[in-house]
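Note to self: the last two entries modelled the partners one at a time, which told us nothing about the interface. This time every component goes in together.
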Amino acid sequence: MNEQAKPNSFRTGPDETGMFGIFGGRFVAETLMPLILDLEKEWEAAKTDPAFKAEIESLNTYYTGRPSPLYYAERLTEHLRDIAKKQGKTGGAKVYFKRDELNHTGSHKINNCLGQILLAKRMGKTRIIAETGAGQHGVATATVCARFGLPCVIYMGATDVERQAPNVFRMKLLGAEVKPVTAGHGTLKDAMNEALRDWVTNVEDTYYLIGTAAGPHPYPEIVRELQSVIGRETREQMMAAEGRLPDMLIAAVGGGSNAIGLFHPFLDDTDVRIVGVEAGGRGLNGEEHCASITAGSPGVLHGNRTFLLQNPDGQILEGHSISAGLDYPGIGPEHSWLSDIGRVEYVPIMDREALDAFQLLTRVEGIIPALEPSHALAEVIKRAPDMAQDQIIVMNLCGRGDKDVFTAAKHLGVEL
Amino acid sequence: MTTRIDRRFETVQAEGRPAFVTYIMGGDPDYETSLRIMKALPGAGSDVIELGMPFSDPMADGPTIQAAGLRALKAGQTLRKTLEMVRAFREEDNETPIVMMGYYNPIYVYGVERFLDDAVNAGIDGLIVVDLPPEMDAELCLPAIQHGINFIRLATPTTDDRRLPAVLKNTSGFVYYVSMNGITGTAIADTSAVNEAVARIKGHTDLPVCVGFGVKTPEQARAIGASADGVVVGTAIVAAIANAAGDPVEAATALVRELADATRNARLAQAAL
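The predicted structure of the combined assembly is written out below.
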């Protein structure tokens, strides 16, 4: 990438055309453009409207259960210090978890869905569509649609429908129609294509509730702002607990909504190191991974320019991850920019390492994490022993692992 | 500067008839067959050829064209080969305008400047890139114009009078009116609404206005051709190629002949009413 001048602030993007450096933008069909401009106008009005803010805060408190705790993982910290000692080191940073897995619906996804459904209502839309991979965003969308009484169609790759059966049933219980997508390879990317096709067809009455900080402008900004409650709470809670900011933030990155939510309020605190963890799958040699930044290249897909897994002809690859929530060949455009400009470091974690971390946390802290934050946890395990004991890491524990119990059992060779 | 597209519409308008525009997917079902089909289109009555550039994730296309793109990719089609198809076509036909249609990513990855140089050398006249609205003109539209290539924009039912000037601003060659909100291949519900929309667009521009998305039958071609400057058929031809019992070239040309006749006679049919 070209060397870019460091900006005065890392928090001012996107620009008025929706760009973060060369990333982002509005690469959509003309049919959708008028609607996207309407959405931008409505969002600009909503984000400065005290009534909108108050309604989100009230829902966050009484419906989701925010603020989520900032938890000092004492036993994990001790465990990692023991490992350091055995290696002849004196380190072992203090590890805190931002516990967004305790939210209603079991992940950070609800933060975004509540804000966007309020936007949909402001715009007078009467029908909600969404895509989902693992089903967490689908469940959160179906939940808010039930709460606000709007019909809801969830597009889900046929392969994912099969491997995430409990979440499919959950969505149906909540009243959503789940449409399996057989086009392509039947995973998240194909579900997103199909949701876009629905949207282009039903643009007059339908709101597309995108689940991650990607897609055409203004979606990456909307999702980031709605998820930034994670980082804002973390700052306050960390000041209360330790009287200072952490030394390092770590979060898993698929599309990147939980990560940008934690990172964004800290971007201008340049003493805070920030690490995004991509799914390394079965390894970066070959195509069985989802490490868009580490092993991909810039391209245009689903309305934005960002790092993508693609072949030399610009055809998008499928990717692979043990975690259905990270199984996407792209990443939110702001992450691509933060990588390009050197503010955030992005690293891969393999399926195997994530699965080990998943088991470790379960036994040491009595918390079953989702496979997505298990990737972040594996990076914590690598880094903490090499940091001093008075240093602090905050990891976003963005989802709980109930949904992954069957997947984990399969990989561990256990029959349920 | 006039292009093959401008000259073809001048000719067709002098003949007092709408143009018949055909879409095929480059490399479907394979390179050789696709090139044979392309070469046979003008003789069957196609005035302008839209050549699809296959893409793995065609967000604005229905199942028929999605499947055609995947077939082409599986058979080894690349953007370089699609350009090569045009070069091979131009060895025999230097008059029929060729518009390449598809999505931005393969062009972006190929490199915009390199792509436009190669497109000019291959004999391409126009581009339709579905996911580049006027807000993104700096990406490809303006460089294409500098290379003498027409950038043909889609206008849709959601493009209102306020937005039309922005959509038309850097458009040249012709305007492609998308008959309904939706993906390629869905049936047109209301041809009279389409005719009204064409009249509305023609109030904003002197460019020819062609109508596509959902034109499948000779009756529809006739109805649309009564007011539009051109009728675009894609999905029906792609389906004929996919479902051909015998030679796909014959299947495609038989359908094109039938639809071309209907389109050519659209105004006569109307005058006779």
